Amino acid sequence: MEFVINTEYVELCNLLKLVDLADSGGRGKAMVAEGLVKVDGAFELRKTAKIKPGQLIECEGKRILISIDPNAEIKPPKVKAPKVRGKGQPNRRSGAGVKPAGTKAAKKASKSTEKKSPWH
Fold this sequence. Notes:
By secondary structure, this protein is an alpha+beta fold. It contains three helices and seven strands; from the N terminus they run E-E-H-H-E-E-E-E-E-H. The strands form two sheets. A five-stranded mixed beta sheet has the order 1-7-6-3-4, with no helix packed on it. It has a two-stranded antiparallel ribbon with strand order 2-5.
């Protein structure tokens, strides 16, 4: 069987759904996780492996050759936009954006490190 795509690649779990080997994308992922799918003769366990034109997929006794539509313009795959942090705040894990010493947090931290007299 031949499956024609008009993009640079298709994710493996979605391909299984598109060729009716899986009822849903979730079932496609399960089939890959169970080791039921071969790509170019080797078992593939990456659910979202990028399947490109020229690759051969084997699953449940069926062989699927991926090819590209010669008349179609190659559409770049959809890329999710990065999540934007509110109000331009830097990622605190990176250490960037450390608050200056005059903030409430800094004052609270300095109070907790001061030595307190046991008679206070």
